[in-house]
Amino acid sequence: xxxIFIAMALLGMAQTVLAQDWARDKLAKSPRHQEWVTVKHExxxxxxxxxxxxxxxxxxxxxxxxxxxxxxxWVQDLADQVAAAGxxxxxxxxxxxxxxxxxxSSSFPEGKATEAVSHLNPDQVTADLNAAADYANKIxxxxxxxxxxxxxxxxxxxxRFATNRSDLSAAFVFYGAxxxxxxxxxxxxxxxxFFAGNDARIGAMLPDAIANMKAAGKTFEPVTYDGAGHGxxxxxxxxxxxxxxxxxxxxxxxxxxxxxxxxx
Length: 264
What we know:
Low-confidence stretches: 1-16
Radius of gyration: 17 Å
Oligomer: single chain
Shape: globular
Number of strands: 8
């Protein structure tokens, strides 16, 4: 009975995440240029969502890594918000070619993308992200600065990507797990964390992450938002957002934009 309850709870959460008409509607009203490009490398074709800011000058690029739910409407809307803030957003669908009939996130039956993301090969993820980053660096409108951000599962991948990519200007980790201690020595960029107070699973990892990053001589500046739950950047925008998630989302967004602005 307990297993059935947990399965039903997870399905309900997935259905809530997938019901993002509000995000889709916002994206449809955006005045910014959006496009899907195919980034090819080593036999793979990674479908990637790109949004450009309305700017007369060249701007930095932010590589956006999606949640465990795959490339949802919210992730695309988030990429558009990054562009609205003045940055080129490059968001690869890491389930490209992994779905039914070789499709991507949108081709999975409801709730099945989570399982697929959970079983992605880490080396493939790194290769896909490196290919997307290489593509981003060649965008004519880029000023040459590259950032990475991720949410949930993608937050952990953002932290891990910092151990594998030497030209990042900064990594932003939203409620994601840290990489192995031994890998932290390879990090060159500062890492900024955004964590939820009501997220013991990830919160329990923070003390060791802080100590290990300090021991490695690396910059790691985490902030925990009291009362917020895991996924507050998405949940805080939803029509039924709790006050705590909404507050955390707004404060985290302002901090994130401030950190990006300092690095330009």
